[in-house]
Design brief:
elongated, 6 strands
Length: 373
């Protein structure tokens, strides 16, 4: 009976300890994730606003584009979040001497490796879904939203006081000012194609919908044709000019490599597509690898600071990521075998994370030299 009570007490203690460790890891993980997301989104928002000011991105879709950048950002920062969160959470146990107490209760490194792996496994699965499916979809949606926004509302892509290129580079449109209602003043339009060479000037104009198509309406202006070539120059005055802008429809989109669905990359013989496939497959594994590495780096002495190893952790993350980038580039240009992939980098860092170099018996690894007779 006493033995049964003893085992029940141990089981209850381990359940409480499991909840405590998971709570520490979860709260630290969320805190680090929020901080890195704020940093990343601040940078992305600045870039999008700058592109909107230049007229390269419609201002009406900036928020949508910012949301679509979440998957790509998570794909990059989640491995770093796993590294820092595990290192900080477990490092607090060392700093508060809780790890010493747990070690005295026969709870050793194997238990913490198991808990870290168990905590990071769902994160790795979520990262796999993001990397394999959500990120390619977000890139494709981003391109389609920009194209549709510029087609449905062409005025959002125009910048007053600047020469704006027409679709397919078939001309240039200039407007000195554009008010909130889309009324343009001092308009200068140069349209040139193989069959036509036309210059239009007008004091005012706007875009209108006619028969489900966008029409540029100019009032009280002049048109000049035949300015280039051997034809005579023709000048005409008009009270109202209605013209369809060239190819103001969504351009035929050719999906780039990072936009292609993962299922299309399987079986492809293109080296660049194979390198992208290897990158997507290795990204979720980085959560486990760097998390275990963070557990190894969390160990600290009584006088060592809790945040003293963050710089070294960042260096290790950059090294891991850059090795993957070098391997991906090597696969794309044929300098690295496709069948080997990027797995050696993950294996190397996993070995480093799981190996206890202090207790490693070097004598067993180095063969003894026989004594001379």
């Amino acid at each position: 009976m006493e033995l049964l009570n003893h085992f029940n007490g141990v089981d209850e203690f381990l359940r409480i300890l499991d909840k405590y460790i998971f709570k520490e890891l979860l709260f630290t993980f969320i805190a680090v994730l929020l901080v890195l997301l704020l940093i990343t989104f601040g940078s992305e928002a600045t870039k999008l606003l700058a592109d909107a000011m230049k007229g390269e991105v419609p201002a009406s879709v900036v928020l949508q584009l910012l949301m679509l950048k979440i998957p790509a950002a998570l794909e990059i920062i989640l491995p770093l979040v796993a590294l820092l969160s595990v290192m900080l959470a477990m490092g607090r146990l060392y700093q508060d001497q809780e790890m010493v107490v747990l070690n005295s209760c026969a709870i050793g490194p194997r238990y913490f490796k198991k808990m870290t792996f168990t905590f990071l496994l769902p994160v790795a699965l979520i990262t796999a879904w993001i990397s394999l499916f959500l990120t390619p979809w977000s890139y494709q949606q981003e391109r389609e939203i920009i194209s549709q926004a510029q087609t449905i509302s062409p005025i959002v892509g125009l910048v007053p006081g600047k020469f704006n290129s027409l679709p397919n580079k078939q001309g240039v449109l200039y407007a000195k000012s554009i008010d909130e209602n889309g009324q343009m003043k001092a308009i200068w339009l140069k349209y040139q194609s193989k069959d036509n060479d036309l210059l239009l000037v007008a004091p005012q104009g706007q875009f209108e919908w006619v028969n489900n198509r966008v029409v540029l309406v100019l009032k009280n202006g002049y048109s000049y044709s035949g300015l280039h070539g051997d034809k005579d120059v023709t000048v005409q005055k008009y009270e109202r000019f209605e013209g369809y802008l060239p190819e103001l429809t969504p351009a035929k989109m050719h999906a780039k490599i990072f936009e292609k669905p993962t299922l299309e990359l399987f079986g492809s013989e293109d080296l660049k597509e194979q390198s992208m496939l290897q990158w997507r497959l290795i990204t979720p594994l980085g959560i486990i690898v760097l998390g275990l590495l963070g557990l190894k780096m969390s160990k600290s002495g009584p006088r060592e600071g809790r945040f003293g190893k963050i710089f070294f952790a960042l260096v290790m993350y950059i090294l891991y990521n850059q090795l993957l980038v070098v391997g991906r580039d090597g696969i794309s240009n044929g300098g690295w075998p496709v069948w080997l992939g990027l797995w050696p980098v993950a294996v190397l860092f996993t070995w480093f994370a799981l190996t206890d170099f202090k207790n490693l018996n070097i004598k067993k690894l180095i063969p003894l030299r026989s004594k001379p007779l």
